[in-house]
Specification:
The protein has about 375 residues and is an alpha+beta fold.
Length: about 375
């Protein structure tokens, strides 16, 4: 017999049937709850609807009818309820979870910059947004300010955002896969040819080095000067650790896993480069940490050195371009063979046969070349 309002009020402990699977459960404690029992996928399941304090008899019947309609259309009420109660994290939380989950499988130390690139360029714009609210327009908002300024970094950030959204989909924070394929259509086209980086004329580089040396020392200024002195890639400077250096012998040994060519590269250090390192050694926070870091643990951003150039009103020049300036200087003002300058830049020979025969690393000649370069930078710019 169907329940009435009075029966619900006076019901004793036990199960009281209203009809079509709707029941009132009364516990010994007096707590009263509504339950709907139904068959779904060949199994009998009980669905809690709520307490009598929250749902009247009429409300419970309406809720039961709604659940029956869901089941008839193939919807799993339990799964739907789980989704509705799901807490969707912010994009920043999702990104940090993604990084922690994946970083152990990364070999290249460049990936240590993964989070710092987000901290500098992504989190300030979309970090607090729910990850399931980050779409192509949000990603475009992140990339537009940096797409032409630091194109390599911007492209890596686009890939990393895609990885975070894929991770969020796998974790159930996003209901469907997010495609960022359309984002590039809203970005300016890069016209610079691959492999060519905007360079400062070598005649202008000494003046910049002098400006950096005259200003109060900062980690960024030291890193930029050190990068120019050694004509290395910015990542090779940013991730340099003290254990790679022998300051007494003026040698920097960069392990192969940090090099673009995946081969160990030994850099002869010029006197100004050694002097810069000795000063930083006296100010170090760790004997084995990162050299160009404020705490020895986190590398400076790949934007730090570029920002120094922009702050100095130097437009259209990349940090990588100083390697080109070094090449031009060596070719136009010295008698060193091109092979020596190429080896100083750790260029990998495209011809495998030629590379096999050319076993020498021209170390002594490279030491002379780097000393001449440092002398040119320090004397011409003063």
């Amino acid at each position: 017999m169907a329940l009435t309002v009075l029966k619900v009020k006076n019901a004793k402990a036990g199960r009281h049937v209203d009809g079509r699977g709707l029941c009132l459960l009364v516990k010994d404690s007096g707590a009263r709850t509504w339950v709907l029992r139904m068959q779904q996928d060949g199994r009998r399941r009980d669905y809690g609807l709520g307490s009598v304090a929250d749902l009247s008899l009429a409300d419970a019947r309406d809720a039961a009818a709604a659940l029956r309609r869901q089941v008839r259309t193939g919807i799993d009420p339990v799964a739907e309820r789980r989704i509705s109660r799901k807490v969707v994290p912010s994009f920043e939380t999702a990104a940090r979870n993604c990084y922690e989950a994946l970083k152990e499988g990364w070999k290249n130390r460049r990936h240590a910059n993964w989070i710092s690139s987000f901290e500098n360029h992504v989190f300030p714009i979309i970090g607090t947004r729910p990850v399931d609210a980050v779409d192509s327009s949000a990603v475009l908002e992140v990339l537009l300010p940096i797409w032409m300024e630091i194109p390599d970094t911007a492209r890596r950030i686009l890939q990393r955002i895609g990885a975070v959204l894929d991770f969020a989909h796998i974790r159930g924070w996003i209901s469907g896969e997010v495609s960022l394929r359309s984002v590039r259509k809203g970005l300016p086209r890069h016209t610079e040819k691959a492999g060519h980086f905007a360079a400062m004329p070598y005649a202008d580089v000494p003046a910049l080095v002098a400006r950096l040396a005259a200003a109060s020392p900062t980690t960024g200024r030291d890193a930029l000067r050190f990068t120019i002195y050694n004509a290395v890639r910015s990542n090779e400077t940013r991730f340099a650790v003290w254990s790679e250096f022998d300051l007494d012998k003026a040698i920097w040994t960069i392990p192969g896993e940090r090099m673009k060519a995946r081969e160990t590269h030994v850099v002869p250090l010029s006197p100004p480069a050694v002097a810069l390192l000795r000063r930083r050694w006296n100010e170090r926070t760790s004997d084995d940490g990162l050299i160009f870091s404020n705490d020895g643990q986190r590398p400076i951003s790949d934007m730090t050195m570029t920002k120094l150039l922009r702050d100095a009103d130097i437009k259209g020049v990349t940090v990588h371009g100083f390697r080109s300036a070094f090449t031009d200087w060596a070719a136009e003002t010295t008698d060193f063979p091109k092979e020596v300058a190429d080896k100083a830049l750790a260029h990998k020979l495209p011809n495998r046969v030629e590379a096999a025969y050319r076993r020498t690393d021209f170390f002594d000649k490279r030491r002379d070349l780097m000393a001449r370069w440092a002398e040119y930078l320090d004397t011409t710019g003063t």
